[in-house]
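[step 3/7] fold_predict: job queued, chain A
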Amino acid sequence: MKIDWLKPLLGHPGPFVTLHLDATPSEQAAERDVEGRWNAARKELAQQGAPATVLDAVAEVVLRPTRVPGPHGRVVIADDTGVLVDRVVNNPPTGTTCSWAPVPALLQAALAADESVELLKVAVDRQGADFLRSGPSGKVHSTFQAPHDEIEKSGSNEVKRARIESRAEDSWERNAAAVAAEIERHVAETRPELVLLTGDKRAVSLARTALTPPAADKVIEVPGGGRGGGVHEGAFAERVGEALDSYRERRRERVLAELRQELGRESNAVTSVDDVVAVLARGQVKELVLAEEYGTGNAPRNGRMLWIGPDPMHIAASRSDLEDIGVTERLEELPSSVALVRAAVGQDAGLTFAPEGSVELMDGVAATLRWRDDGTPTEALVSMSGDDRRLH
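[step 4/7] structure written:
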């Protein structure tokens, strides 16, 4: 899972407001409207000591409509400079959570976004396409009209009909090529994880055939959608939900399969807090893997705390470890969950939560690596470690 959207938090000393609330429009929500949910959260944050200026900045964002239909949530993180993160997430929380603390609730934000997929939905017909880009800031709609308009197959006699049908087929193919080029442009500009293609069967087939990598590699087809009327929205939404569930599972399993393989080889992966800290400090991490229940906020797992410095790669098990490399200012002790995720964000690593039983993790943490050298920790076999109690 990409966590680069948390990068704006780096370099800010805090303290921070972290807010996760149900942003579902009031007409579709079972309880009070968004303003009511925010007002309750604002009172709680004020009681925790959050300044009115920070709360005003959060309110300005939270009360701005997301224009996203259906149930969804919102994660907002702010400090005294303003709102740093504003992310729409697919699933609303069961209840609003908020905190005013020296560090942002990074795991809370990441857990909230774990079910999200950055998606480009494309509904095509023989005349063009409608685009819907779902991302961290909500949804953006756009429409593309293909250039060729002779798409009907009709005529008064056999010769004329054959000529018109030939021109129509040619127009369909040219329009499909134009739609494919537009899809590739959207993919290059907005970098979605997944492209969902739906609409007229013939137009879908032609457009997909015209696509080239990397856009072609991101495409899945979901039948039942379209540009005009006649779409059974409930059935189509269910198919989309199933497609996204399948993609999320594949996304997670790709990372966990690589982790199992590399741990088995004792190659490009490590596990245990100390070893993960070592590779994070060296900028080696491709994907940070945490046990699914590693934390739901800032609480440390097994009471473990870590030390950080001003740079995201300043992470260590003790203060003296940082002082030994010349880092003596702006040192801070943080819960391990926050320190690990902060360091991962700083080196553009991904983050994956591992369900219980899916992979053996020491201390509930592991990492896959971009590279290794002689200074990379080497994992000993668990059966020889004498430390089975740390496995999760």
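[step 5/7] annotate
The domain at 250-390 is CATH 3.30.1330.30 (60s Ribosomal Protein L30; Chain: A;).
The longest strand covers residues 82-89.
exit 0
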